[in-house]
Model the fold of this input.
Amino acid sequence: MSRTRRVAGMFSKHALLIVASVLALFPVYVMLTAAFKTEEGFSAHPWAPIASPSLGGFRAAVNDQFPRWFENTVIVSSASVVITLLVAALAAWGFAHWAFRGRDAVLGVLVALMVVPPVVLLVPLFVFGVRIGQISTFRLVILIYVGLMLPFSVFMLTNFFRTIPASMIEAAVIDGASSWRVFRRIVLPLSAAPLVTLGVVNLLWVWNELLIALVFLQDDSKKTLMVGITGFQSRYSLNVPAIMAGLTLATLPIVTVYVFGQRFFVRGLVAGALKGE
Done:
């Protein structure tokens, strides 16, 4: 009886995982199949597999302003993620290594900022951007992205830095290494997994972010992929293959980054779970 229950339990778990996987992959299936269909083929059979592949949707997407949107997204995303990782690593090392008055209070405030939705900051940030004349500039958008990503990044790296064995740091200090050298030669090499994880997570968010880019990048030459595809969708509302082709091209870079960084991803997610010496 117990064996029957175990088998039934395993079957139900696997069935649940299969159903969840199918539901998660179904939008991807629709996007990919629609991207390689013609307008007539999609209208006639929207859910059917690809019978005769067509690249018309990709030609329509690429011939628009897609390359410029892609370039803008790469600039904004890479600059935001790099600056965030640099500032977060330095700040987290200070929180983890230096004991100063109010350290836990400041870290608690940073953690509290993680629950503040970006939409409540939209109006004051827009007023600020108008006053300093930085609307429709990459500088302001990058600054906003960095500010929104820093709380979680600092929190995660602080927890990881605290797990680094103190004996390693003490040995380096006894050998005459400065705090900066310890951070650069010991802490950063040991932090590859959480840094890559943070980079992937932050890149996913910035790459797919729409609201801030839509509000602050009003110039057509400064639009990012998500903003451009949103307008592209309204312009080609009847050409579903062109819309799906644009979304497919926008998704490929992120999938590539995740595939190459996935071996660090799981390690980075649990990097601060175990206590060091």
